[in-house]
Write a structure and sequence with these properties.
This protein has 411 residues and is mainly alpha-helical. The protein has a domain at 32-81 and 105-159 and 172-187 and 277-408: Up-down Bundle (Na+/H+ antiporter like fold), CATH 1.20.1530.10. Helices cover 74% and strands 2% of the residues. The chain contains 16 helices and two strands. It has helices at 10-26, 29-47, 52-60, 74-99, 106-130, 148-158, 164-188, 195-215, 221-245, 250-259, 262-289, 303-330, 336-339, 345-355, 359-369, 374-408, and strands at 62-65, 70-73. It has a two-stranded antiparallel sheet. Helix 4 (74-99) packs parallel to helix 10 (250-259). The protein is globular, with a radius of gyration of 22 Å. It is a multi-pass membrane protein. Belongs to the NhaA Na(+)/H(+) (TC 2.A.33) antiporter family. This is Na(+)/H(+) antiporter NhaA.
Length: 411
């Protein structure tokens, strides 16, 4: 006689299935990109309607936590607080690629790494050239970023059936680009560091590392649950200490993501992914894009606007294509089997245009670079949206052309 599986109430089962389906949607690269785009458009549109002033006032409303020195506006709670979860996910993905993925050897990382450096350096140079003689040179980091979620989302929507090497190269490029962006934020957007809080933050990261090692040891579910809660508490404490130190608080999330063992960290990412893709990133995009369109002529816009509009699509295209192309030739793999993974010129240009979709990190850098000049922040936001939009449209066309050629060629 065999025992039957335990039964559950239909409503409970249906609810669980529905919840799981919703979570799987928010893990989709296509859905993540679509939500980001819709949220940004919605924020920009609403900010320029009758409810715009109330929306901007709400964004600027402060929600302090008395007694511990935290006094952030709602906008900063989103960009400094919630966005830390996104940077935690980025850090864990980076660690995975470095340890077990497409960047786990120097040979694998060399070409996309050089392409990523080119994709950072050239947009920064283009920006500096176009803003030369103005007081806005500190905005050079803004066009250096690539939005992983958006770029992969566009590739997923328009590039069905393309060779896997394109996604692999884009992923490696974007991950390394994010690593550079994290370093830029840590080095160039740190002001008035408090060494006491910074030292305590380092201690907190070290304790997190130790507790994380305990997670990898066998034990009861109760013990494991207590350790998970302790890690979460330590992560919050680390965020607070890093914020109080003057270093941008998202760096705390990066540090925690890098020191945790890969297995439990990836489980945490799996649990957080629907929340980050479905709420955190769209909320940040909505808040960042909620700016009033300047009531001036095109000729009165600051050099920042024009520099960013050009630097994102053109700078990324030139930087990634030239650096990646040269690196592919100089460091050509002698193994014929590996040569099939080298991108063609057309594929490299397509990846370069996808790299021009700056969006999330570019919007964050824009806020950090011009924190004391709100009108420049607004122009920079519009420029990031426009420059990323141009990159998105051109990349979508190029991906579509590649897909059609791939089908015709039987590849």
């Amino acid at each position: 006689m065999t025992s039957s599986p335990p039964s559950f109430p239909p409503s409970s089962s249906a609810s669980a299935a529905s919840s799981g389906h919703r979570a799987s949607i928010f893990r989709s690269e296509r859905a993540a990109a679509a939500l980001l785009l819709v949220a940004a458009i919605l924020g920009l549109v609403l900010a320029n309607t009758g409810i715009g002033p109330a929306l901007l006032d709400l964004k600027a409303t402060h929600l302090p936590i008395p007694g511990i020195g935290l006094d952030l506006s709602i906008g900063h709670w989103v960009s400094d607080g919630l966005l830390a979860l996104f940077f935690f996910v980025v850090a864990v993905d980076l660690k995975h690629e470095l340890v077990r993925g497409e960047l786990d050897s120097v040979k694998k990382a060399l070409v996309p790494g050089i392409a990523a450096v080119g994709g950072v350096a050239v947009p920064a140079l283009v920006y500096l050239l176009l803003t030369a003689g103005s007081p806005y040179g500190r905005g050079w980091p803004i066009p250096t970023a690539t939005d992983i979620a958006f770029a992969l989302g566009v590739l997923a929507v328009f590039g069905t059936g393309l060779p896997g090497r394109i996604r692999v190269f884009l992923l490696a490029l974007a991950v390394l680009d994010d690593l550079i962006a994290i370093l830029i934020i840590a080095v160039f957007f740190t002001h008035g560091s408090n060494l006491l809080f910074l030292g305590l933050g380092v201690v907190s990261v070290a304790v997190t590392f130790g507790v994380g090692r305990l997670l990898g040891r066998p034990g009861s579910s109760l013990r494991r649950g207590m350790l998970v809660l302790l890690v979460v508490l330590l992560a919050v404490v680390t965020w607070y200490l890093v914020y109080r130190s003057g270093v941008h608080a998202t760096i705390a999330a990066v540090a925690v993501g890098l020191v945790l063992p890969l297995s439990p960290a990836r489980k945490a990412v799996h649990a957080l992914e629907p929340f980050v893709n479905g709420i955190v990133l769209p909320l940040f995009a909505f808040a960042a894009a909620a700016v009033v369109l300047p009531s001036v002529g095109l000729g009165q816009l600051s050099p920042v606007f024009w520099a960013l509009v050009v630097a994102l699509p053109v700078g990324k295209l030139l930087g990634i294509t030239i650096a990646g192309g040269v690196a592919s030739r100089v460091f050509r793999d002698p193994d014929p089997a590996r040569r099939s993974q080298v991108l063609s010129f057309g594929e490299l240009i397509t990846v370069a245009m996808l790299g021009g979709i700056g969006f999330t990190v570019s919007l964050l850098m824009n806020e950090l670079a011009f924190a004391s000049a709100h009108e420049i922040v607004d122009e920079g936001t519009l420029a990031v949206l426009l420059g990323s939009g141009v990159s998105l449209v051109v990349a979508a066309v190029l991906v579509t052309v590649l897909r059609r050629r791939s089908r015709v060629g039987g590849r």
